[in-house]
Design brief:
The chain is of the alpha/beta class. It is built from 10 helices and 23 strands. Helix 1 packs across helix 10, helix 3 runs antiparallel to helix 4 and helix 9 runs parallel beside helix 10. The structure holds S-adenosylmethionine.
Length: 406
């Protein structure tokens, strides 16, 4: 039986109507006619009968097997329009007006951090990403999204997996490019014994890593794993959150700096290690609030060693349980907020109840963003403009920054 694709799901599956209800179709585009076996409401291996004019040949040789990308069969223009439409539809679903919107798409080979999986097998080791909807590890020597530096370390990850991995469990290697070279935060597997510790430390030297940690224990700290945030240099704790590409980070920071405008006192909530706080300190005093003490410490150190910045204060605080209250918010002319995927319901409720005139909301989840936006619009804010950021090329992931004023 043939199915016609009507739209994409939030996971970028094609969605068609079948006799027994909705059918999800892997790697299909709107307007296409496909056929295939429906198992549990899904066609995993569709045959494309009528292709979309937006269909392109996937540029990556690993696309069929690797589960890291889901949009390589679509043109760049289609993907950009679809990601903006995901945000538009999330707002429309709540009856909210959609403002002016632009998109910034990171170039290929620009991801500066990625988590590789390592597994021992009968024959040796596998290091790469998971296959589609599977825990099989697929090797990705020609991956198109990662910075070359990240791929250059895969042979070391094989050696580390052979040493400390097992056939039952998997090791997650979070690899990040810093100004001082690569750093690896490994987790999983057994804690290395003293002999393995020594060998891993030798590997860190041989591959010239800036830092290597395993299950949060630092094995080698050869150079400070510095990240540059505006004029400040910060050494984040192992595996700490960072924006995925320099390009995406620059687009978000430029948006936030322009949106904050002439505000002199700014709060940066869910501040991480200072991605926004430190560049904003070039134009305003900033109070940075973050749940992880290791991150606020790193931010504070970075500010203390930088030259030419306004004052930055830090506070370690759980903003889900103890959001900033209206009397605390009254000290600021603008707030930047960048919560995790769950959004910032409690904090946004306090912002709505406060007199704050200007808010920059950065979000990695259009659905929770739209929920928070509704609360803000009900409290008299206007959603002025939106920037969609695609720093997870070829994935279904959508990020955005929005300016609210009142
Ligand atoms: C999306 S990241 C943004 C970090 C930073 N703004 C950046 O761009 O690098 C969200 C941050 O919120 C922090 N976080 C998560 N839950 C929190 C909570 N309940 N209270 C305060 N911070 C929290 C995380 O540690 C993380 O640094």
């Amino acid at each position: 039986m043939n199915y016609e694709i009507e739209r994409l799901s939030l996971h970028a599956d094609g969605v068609a109507r079948g006799p027994d209800g909705t059918v999800h179709v892997a790697m299909a585009l709107p307007g296409e006619v496909v056929e295939g076996d429906v198992v549990d409401g899904r066609i995993a291996q569709p045959k494309i009968i009528i292709p979309s004019p937006e269909r392109v040949k996937a540029p990556c040789p690993h696309y069929r097997s690797c589960g890291g990308c889901v949009m390589q069969h679509a043109s760049e223009g289609f993907t950009a329009a679809w990601k903006m439409d995901v945000v538009r539809q999330a707002l429309i679903a709540r009856g909210l007006a959609v403002p002016e919107m632009t998109i910034a798409t990171s170039p290929l080979q620009s991801r500066r951090r990625a988590t590789f999986s390592g597994r021992r097998t009968k024959k040796g080791t596998l290091v790469g990403f998971h296959a589609r909807a599977s825990d099989t590890v697929v090797e990705i020597p020609n991956c198109l999204i990662l910075r070359r530096e990240l791929l250059s370390i895969v042979s070391m990850l094989h050696e580390a997996t052979a040493l400390a991995g097992s056939r039952k469990g998997e090791i997650a290697f979070a690899v990040t490019l810093s100004e001082a070279g690569l750093e690896i935060a490994a987790s999983g597997g057994k804690d290395p014994d003293p002999a393995q510790f020594e060998t891993l430390s030798g590997l860190a030297r041989q591959y010239d890593l800036a830092r290597l940690s395993w299950n949060a224990e630092v094995i080698a700290a050869r150079r400070p794993a510095i990240q540059q945030f505006g004029k400040a240099q910060v050494v984040p704790p192992p595996g700490a959150f960072l924006q995925a590409t320099h390009h995406g980070e620059a687009a978000l920071v430029a948006f936030a700096k322009a949106a904050v405008g002439s505000a002199l006192h700014v709060a940066d909530l869910f501040a991480g290690c200072g991605t926004f706080a430190l560049p904003l300190a070039e134009q305003a005093e900033v109070h940075a609030v973050e749940g992880s003490a290791a991150m606020t410490d790193a931010l504070d150190q970075g500010w203390r060693q930088a030259q030419g910045l306004h004052r930055v204060t830090t506070e370690t605080r759980d903003l889900f349980r103890r959001p900033l209250l209206p009397d605390e918010l009254a000290k600021f002319d603008a707030v930047v907020i960048d919560p995790p995927r769950a959004g910032a319901q409690a904090q946004v409720a306090e912002i709505a109840a406060s007199g704050l005139p200007r808010l920059v909301h950065v979000s990695c989840n259009p659905v929770t963003f739209a929920r928070d936006a509704e609360t803000l619009l009900d409290a008299g804010f206007t959603l002025e403009k939106l920037l969609v950021v695609d720093q997870f090329r070829f994935s279904a992931h959508v990020e955005l920054a929005a300016l609210f004023t009142r």
